[in-house]
């Protein structure tokens, strides 16, 4: 596929092309197949940009299958997803005239449940189904593996280039997010389809280690929970696989440079006094 030169260029001639945006990629491989990928933590402004691009799917063209790949989302922004759902609901008839069926590939764990919840608010007249694997989604859309495999590989290369992250780290983070409690090298390597030694070698080549990436995913997941839920710090610690609030606070401070309660205070609102006091007491025992 060839890169489009901006939204207008893409809307005018999308077939066989793609458009890269901030936190998303929309592609139109052939007249009967298109889709988009989301990653990171798309904010409302990013979703507004995506919505401009989605108009390409409701322009009268050949009926097509649609693939929505949300596996790489780290934390959905409620305001952003509400905007997306509202856009889709208002244009349901237009999409129904061009979309034959749509497959959503969601992340696993809490993020996946949230994404699936937002998707369930849509009630399109065309068939839709939720998956956790792109290969299964493509098969349901009617694409044989001989056609879907090279396309998925091409899309993955585009995502790798856009995120600046190696494929092994992307896959490792995706596997770890829903399995932070009791996460270990052996089970993670098995889920990724490789031996422990191979995973360790590939991480070393990327300049990192399993423990370093596990800690990074723990903290990033914790940040999402601190921002988007009212969970107590102890509950967040347990949810991301830390043995205690003291362990969680030490890890968070090491990677972020400040305590979880201070970070939440600065990025969201003031923490409950009891919560801040509990953290100080736990940290003071170290």
From TrEMBL:
Gene3D superfamilies: Homeodomain-like (1.10.10.60). Keywords: DNA-binding, Transcription, Transcription regulation. The keyword rRNA processing does not apply. Pfam families: HTH_18. Residues 276-286 have a biased composition (Basic and acidic residues). Residues 260-286 are annotated as: Disordered. The keyword Transcription regulation applies. GO terms for molecular function: DNA-binding transcription factor activity; transcription cis-regulatory region binding. One of its GO terms (cellular component) is cytosol. Residues 166-266 form the HTH araC/xylS-type domain. InterPro entries: Homeodomain-like_sf (IPR009057), HTH_AraC (IPR018060). This is AraC-type DNA-binding protein. It comes from Stigmatella aurantiaca.
